[in-house]
Amino acid sequence: MIKYCYFNGQIINLNKAVLSIYDLGTVRGYGAFDFLRTYNGKIFHAKEHYERFKTSLKEIGLKLDLSFKDFEEVCYNLMKLNKMKDASLRLLMTGGNMTDGLLSTKPNLFILCEGIINPASEALQKGVSLITSEYLRPFALSKSTCYIEAVRMEPAKRKAKATEVLFLKDKKLYECSTSNIFIIKKGTFFTPKTDVLLGITRKVIIDLLKKNKLKIVEKDISEKELYSADEIFITATNKKVLPVIKINSKKIGDGKVGYLTKQTQSLFDKYILNY
Fold this sequence. Notes:
By secondary structure, the protein is an alpha+beta fold. 30% of the residues lie in helices and 32% in strands. The protein has helices at 24-27, 46-60, 68-81, 121-126, 148-152, 154-159, 200-211, 223-227, 259-273, and strands at 4-7, 10-13, 31-39, 42-43, 88-94, 98-100, 103-104, 108-114, 128-134, 164-169, 172-176, 180-185, 188-191, 216-218, 221-222, 231-236, 240-247, 250-251. Strands 9, 10, 11, 12, 13, 14, 15, 16, 17 and 18 form a 10-stranded mixed β-sheet that branches. It has a 6-stranded antiparallel β-sheet with strand order 2-1-8-5-3-4. A two-stranded antiparallel sheet has the order 6-7. A hairpin with a 3-residue loop joins strand 16 and strand 17 (240-247). It is globular, with a radius of gyration of 19 Å.
């Protein structure tokens, strides 16, 4: 059982970490977060996640006063106290208590230590489906706590037995609610470049593709290009490389996980095996 978390400078019992009802995260949805995991007891690309968290906070006007060294130390101490060899780690900063209008005295910072959630082996082998929503996230470079559209679409997603909600806007492809997307056409990989969260797993995949002489292009992708793709997959910290075989009612390619997607999965699996 998880017992400990980090809250505003100290590791405390999880039950004692509480927010005021007047916190800006509660009354205005003002905050940002990041999500990490470990492989073989080591935090996966810790520095990159830390820097992205700082970027997310800067985008919305908040600042992180915790050094990378202290951040790492806190995370590993949390894992030790919670008796976890591998864990997911959730960073969260909220705006803090309102003092005058929308001003606050000091933001609140949490680091939560949670269990690992891996995609089901069947999903990795046979693929998943997506549904779409006409939406573009505000402050796209920030992993903000504003997930209204994702939550609003949850009933529709469950009804369709889909794994993710894919955001399109003005016939242009962006990202999923909690993951990045790649499409493959005639042997070339494509992934959206602008107005998307720059995922850490996304970057790892791009680097692996380049290293293995596979062509990858970061560009704006149209809705037409999306539906004419030969293969599609999504990436995220808790999704690895997850094949997509259907979007809404439309089958992607032949409706089966493609060769290049399987090759990408293999490259990523080898990468994390000895991470």
